[in-house]
Amino acid sequence: MRTLLGTLAVSVAATWTVSARAQLQPPPPMTAPAPAWPQLPGSPFGLPAAPPPQAPNATTQQLDAGDTSGSFRGLEIAYANADVGGGYASFGKNLGGGKSGEGGAAFGLGAGARFITWTLGARVRLMPASDFTLIQATLEAGYHLPMGAWDPYVNLHGGYSVASAKSVDGFSPPSPHGVDLGVSIGDDYYFSALFSVGLDVTFDTLFLSRSASEGPQLPATGGSLITEPTIPSASAVGVVLIGSAHAGLHFDL
User: Cα dihedral sign for 98, 101, 102, 108?
Assistant: First the structure.
């Protein structure tokens, strides 16, 4: 009997000791699961994948194309150029001209601002002929398509033109003048970011009018002077075609 009681007491003591130790033992630390980072293809170290590259915008592509071609073009903000060539102008005989049209040399100066592919500027051109000197002053807006060192473009322009008539025997006939509307197509080649050369063709339509004026005084018999009849007012539509070569300066950031 005593042996049975002793065995029971030892079993109870052992059970109490194990339970107490289990209660006094601190709980295991709580750790958050590691995030599932995307893996680089073929990476043995589990490095996160790099963000996908962003596509370059249109401006960056144009500048990169210029650099790749060796033209060294930057972001152009302004330009100035001079042109020389030849042209043909016709106003019709309705304005008093003795010929239906005349040709001659043509000279021009232009300048303006550039906004990536668009330009906005002003131009003055002179075309001296035997009976008149054509003077054109226009504003122009152009669209350019940069292709490395090449820069093809189309310009729309409008403004004012006057065919300054030359004096005949001391008499200056009235000069036709009016609205000038036209288009130019051309191409430039950039030797550097600063300097380019190019060619263009320009076609203009002129809506001209001439005011009435008193005719010239001519000598009559007996040394007196007589006045020719008054020159009436008139209007007509003229055309101008000019081909020219030009050299330009370009200013960028």
Answer: positive
